[in-house]
Amino acid sequence: MKNRQQGFTLIEIMIAVAIVGILMAFAIPSYAEYVVRGRLSEAFTALGGAQPAAEQYWANNRSYAGFDGAAAFPANTPNFSYALTTATASAYTITATGSGKMDGFVYTIDQNGTHATTGSPTGWGTNAACWVDHKGGACSN
Q1: Distance CA 46, CA 81 (A)
Q2: Secondary structure (DSSP) of 4-25
């Protein structure tokens, strides 16, 4: 009767661990960028929703001044704080500034609906005509 041993050799286990390590080296940075892009949509949604609210505020008050005190103005979150950086009778600029893990991202929208990325972490880029949502300055909006 033959006595067969079952199981994996040390070499087989080391090869499997090396393969998993190589896959993780590519997966973790991609996942981290995916999480950041998901958090950016928070700012895009808030700024996009603030634009019609600002127009409604103007229709009621004939000025954008004071809109930051209105109930429809975006509330600060752990990822972004919102400010009315320019407000006159005929113009406004709302700025979303990243905080915490989103530090460095700065997005704006104005009365004409112009989207702009005025600040971003290294590698993301800025754009005066859109909200950057991919590394390298690419926009999908």
Answers
A1: 10
A2: ---S--HHHHHHHHHHHHHHHH
Whole-model pTM? 0.81
| Domain boundaries defined on the chain | 11-139
The total of other beta-carbon atoms located within 10 Å of residue 130's CB is: 16
pLDDT band with cut points at 50, 70 and 90 for residue 141: low
Contact criterion met (CB below 8 Å) for 95 and 83: yes
Q: Residue 7's pLDDT is what?
A: 82
Contact by Cβ (8 Å): 72, 58: no
Helix ranges, the chain (H): 10-61
Fill in the amino acid letter for 21: G
Tell me the C-alpha distance between 126 and 123, whole Å. 10
| DSSP code for 90 | S
pLDDT tens, position by position, 68-78 = 999 999 999 99
Residue pair 63/44 in contact (Cβ under 8 Å)? The answer is: no
Which tokens go with 141?
Answer: 């909006």
Nearest to 43 by CA among 68, 78, 13, 15: 78
